[in-house]
Specification:
The protein is α/β, with parallel strands linked by helices and 348 residues long. It has two domains: 194 residues, Medium-chain alcohol dehydrogenases, catalytic domain (Quinone Oxidoreductase, Chain A, domain 1); 130 residues, Rossmann fold, CATH 3.40.50. Helices cover 24% and strands 27% of the residues. The strands form five sheets. Strands 3, 4, 5, 8, 9, 18 and 19 form a seven-stranded mixed β-sheet that branches. The protein has a six-stranded parallel β-sheet with strand order 12-11-10-13-15-17, with helices on one face. A two-stranded antiparallel ribbon has the order 1-2. A hairpin with an 8-residue loop joins strand 1 and strand 2. Helix 4 packs across helix 5 and helix 4 crosses helix 9. The two termini are 18 Å apart. The model has no long low-confidence stretch (mean pLDDT 97). The structure holds NADP nicotinamide-adenine-dinucleotide phosphate and zinc ion (ZN) (2 copies).
């Protein structure tokens, strides 16, 4: 079916209008009228081909919220009118050990990403949420509480689960000292979740002017990473660090912050520069990575958000403003997630 969208056509051109065909609704499919879509830094990495895997045109967007407009004959979990979300994945093999363990993001045959993966049904590549509608297998559709502000829920589908999952995996608990590095889309959700889990949260930022916001979001302290004396004063005190920095950077200055045997989990998708093993061997410390979260955990995160009244802090934009939003994100000038109002695309 004919679908309106915005796409990146090459590494260096601005995003522009694009139309393409989505598949018809199959027996297990849910058709969703997209109301809002968040803007993740990964969308920029893909539009710019930072990871060398982009096949143009790229229709980004994996923080999708919308209303169900049609369901396939065999769909049992959703009905017309439901408020639903779609995150970074739209399919996986469902049979491998990762899929059986509810970790579809690590599917051994490769998950089908919401955009930028070969499309097994339509051919070509999958296209994401910078579009007016999407058709997704019900297994990869999430239930969203009507209690929460719909537009502010959108970023939970990527920024939310990507920060919730490592905090759970490394068992952050009440009283732990947790540092969140980088106050952007992911970072601001990391602060909210770590605070809701009872941790003592320290926002570790390069931007002193974000300090007041960091505290409003739930941080108990703010640490300016460029201030060597302040960094030294926190040495050896953190139970866990969550690093969301989106560009190549030197992680050596952060490692001394960790306690013995503690872990820094990296979620930013970027080369690490000149990492020296001293940061690890001194104190038997770990660097780890984490990728979004499985569908079951994503639903758990959305339910946690409904229970604790957690949503993202968003700035709503029109689809036509996407290139300005990208420029601002690149300058770390985002408070704290752009969300596209898809009505602007439908009206165009
Ligand atoms: P974002 O909104 O642009 O936020 C990133 C923040 O990092 C900035 O606001 C800034 O915060 C800080 N920063 C920027 N440049 C820096 C530098 N040179 N040194 C230190 N800090 C710097 O990005 P995002 O959407 O949160 O995404 C962050 C990264 O996670 C991206 O690489 C994205 O692709 C990746 N990602 C990974 C997953 C996953 O599953 N692993 C999922 C989603 C996104 P301050 O101003 O506070 O310093
Ligand atoms: Zn994302
Ligand atoms: Zn699998």
């Amino acid at each position: 079916m004919n679908t309106k969208a915005y796409a990146a056509y090459s590494t260096d051109k601005p995003l522009a209008p694009f139309t393409f065909n989505r598949r018809e609704v199959g027996p297990l499919d849910v058709k969703i009228d997209i109301t809002y879509c968040g803007v993740c830094h990964s969308d920029i990495h893909m539009a710019h081909n930072d990871w060398g895997m982009s096949v143009y045109p790229v229709v980004p967007g994996h923080e999708i919220i919308g209303r169900v407009t049609e369901v396939g004959k065999k769909v049992t979990a959703f009905k017309k009118g439901d408020l639903v979300g779609v995150g970074c994945m739209v399919d996986s093999c469902r049979e491998c050990s990762a899929c059986k363990d509810d970790l579809e993001q690590f599917c051994e045959k490769g998950m089908t990403m919401t955009y930028g993966s070969p499309d097994p049904i339509m051919g070509g590549m999958t296209h994401g949420g910078y579009s007016d509608k999407i058709v997704v297998d019900e297994k990869f559709v999430l239930r969203v509480s009507e209690k929460l502000d719909e537009k502010a829920v959108a970023p939970l589908l990527c920024a939310g689960i990507t920060t919730y999952s490592p905090l759970r995996h490394w068992e952050v608990k009440k009283g732990d000292k947790v540092g969140v590095i980088g106050l952007g889309g992911l970072g601001h959700m990391g602060v909210k979740f770590a605070a809701a889990m009872g941790a003592h949260v320290v926002m570790i930022t390069t931007s002193p002017n974000k300090a007041a916001d960091a505290k409003r979001l739930g941080a108990h302290e703010v640490l300016i990473s460029k201030d060597a004396d302040a960094m030294a004063a926190h040495a050896g005190t953190f139970d866990f660090l969550l690093n969301t920095v989106p560009v190549g950077h030197d992680i050596n200055p952060y490692m001394p912050l960790l306690k013995r045997d503690a872990t820094m989990a990296i979620v930013g998708a970027t080369p690490l520069e000149n990492t020296h093993s001293f940061g690890l061997i001194m104190g038997r410390k770990s660097i780890a990575g984490s990728l979004i979260g499985g569908i079951k955990e994503t639903q758990e995160m959305l339910d946690f958000c409904a229970e604790h009244n957690i949503v993202s802090d968003v700035e709503v934009i029109d689809m036509q403003d996407i290139n300005t939003a990208y420029d601002r994100i690149m300058k770390s000038d985002v408070k704290y997630r752009f969300v596209i109002d898809m009505q602007s695309l439908k009206n165009a």
